[in-house]
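Let's sit down with a protein and look at its sequence and fold side by side. Go ahead whenever you are ready, and we will take it from there.
>
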Amino acid sequence: MFYAYILECADGTFYSGCTNDLKKRLHAHNNTKAGAHYTKIRRPVTLKWSQAFRSHAKARAKEAELKRMTREGKMGMITVTGQRQ
């Protein structure tokens, strides 16, 4: 499985990404040099939304869609799925 996801950074901003191992990638964002530079300087990050896909291409397409969304759009997605804390 592949996943598209939204993280919330410590400064309140959102980061969108895609991975085939969500747990490992979240750990990387929070604890290692392998995390994205954007999240590395805004730790800790928390997972706010994710969606599973059978193909890498579909997960990447969703990631691209997420990256084009406004902050308000992302907040709406998070609220609708009930994962917003």
